[in-house]
Amino acid sequence: MIKLLIFGPSGSMGTLISKLALKDGEINVVGACDVEKIGKKLGDIVSENDPNDIIISNTHELDDLINDTSPDIAIDFTIAEATEKNCLICVRHGIRCVIGTTGLSNEFLNQFKALVLEKKAPAVISSNMATGVNVFFKMLSLLSKHLEDWDIEIIETHHHRKRDSPSGTALTAAKIVCDTIGCELSDVVKYGRERGPNKREIGAKNEIGIHSIRAGDIVGDHTVLYAGSGERIEFKHQAHNRNCFATGAIKAIKFLANAKENKIYTTQEVLGL
Ligand SMILES: NC(=O)c1ccc[n+]([C@@H]2O[C@H](COP(=O)([O-])OP(=O)(O)OC[C@H]3O[C@@H](n4cnc5c(N)ncnc54)[C@H](OP(=O)(O)O)[C@@H]3O)[C@@H](O)[C@H]2O)c1
């Protein structure tokens, strides 16, 4: 059995992941940490039977919780500031982490990567754990290879509660396009576009524009627009609900439990794509 620690079980993703983990015969949930609902029962919060009667702990008591429960794996879909703090504590204890939170800083990623090696605690970090999105990523390489001279723009749409912008998935898509056509993301990416004092500045040749729309309860749409002379392709992925991410997260947990290399894995590797 994989001993699992869950961060943020009262969040949208945290609730779904907790439900699936509590029902899974290969996973034993040994702890849960949040900033709210401290002292309440995990099973009650996520409306699922919990054989261990886990009580939600305060994140300030994380070291004690880890010492008491010895988790093998921690899963974190919360907010970047929380993930950066909590997952550094986990990896220092040698716990393997599955991180789905987006908007993580490069400083954190560098520090985390070094600790993964030092503590021999592999991890999965992925901006999007849905199977469809990862096939979408794979197809982007092919499209970009054949259409490298066309204008390429990325449009992402999410619910109005989303804290980061652009989405981690849009940034991953842009990185794949750049890697395929041989340019640096920081050299070509343009976030949104507005008319500058010099009208010529709104020309978009040799740029990859990323545009973020925030509206209602939209779970997540990503379109990569390839536009040539007299024709275009709009390549689109739409998530209808969060189950696709949560089932991907459970796959990542099981993959990581058996991972041999001390590195940060992607969902593409988890899914064997
Ligand atoms: N990789 C993927 O496949 C994937 C898919 C979907 C979403 N995401 C990402 O996952 C993250 C969460 O998304 P969501 O839709 O579930 O957001 P959400 O509903 O806002 O959930 C985030 C939860 O984390 C809690 N939290 C804040 N600080 C915490 C701490 N120190 N320790 C533990 N929990 C803490 C929040 O509590 P408060 O509300 O009280 O602050 C909230 O309940 C986002 O970064 C999102 O972009 C990734």
Question: What hetero molecules are bound to the protein chains?
Answer: NADP nicotinamide-adenine-dinucleotide phosphate
What is the gyration radius calculated from CA atoms? 20 Å
What is the mean pLDDT? 95
| Total number of distinct structural domains | 2
Q: Roughly how much helix do the residues carry, as a percent range?
A: 25-40%
Q: Structural class, please?
A: alpha/beta
Number of helices: 10
The CATH C-level name of the largest domain is: Alpha Beta
What are the low-pLDDT stretches, counting only 5+ consecutive residues below 50?
Answer: none
CATH architecture of the largest domain, please? 3-Layer(aba) Sandwich
Number of strands: 12
End-to-end gap: 26 Å
- Predict the CATH topology of the largest domain: Rossmann fold
Main sheet?
7 strands, parallel
What is the structure about, briefly put?
The model has no long low-confidence stretch (mean pLDDT 95). The chain is 38% helix and 23% strand.
Would you kindly provide a written description of the structure presented here, covering whatever features stand out?
The protein is of the alpha/beta class and 273 residues long. It has two domains: 2-121, Rossmann fold, CATH 3.40.50; 131-239, 2-Layer Sandwich (Dihydrodipicolinate Reductase, domain 2). It is built from ten helices and twelve strands. It is elongated. The model has no long low-confidence stretch (mean pLDDT 95). The structure holds NADP nicotinamide-adenine-dinucleotide phosphate. The site of NADP nicotinamide-adenine-dinucleotide phosphate has 26 residues, from helix 1, strand 2, helix 4 and helix 9. NADP nicotinamide-adenine-dinucleotide phosphate (NAP) is lined by residues 7-8, 10-14, 33-36, 59, 77-79, 82, 86, 100-102, 126-129, 245, 248.
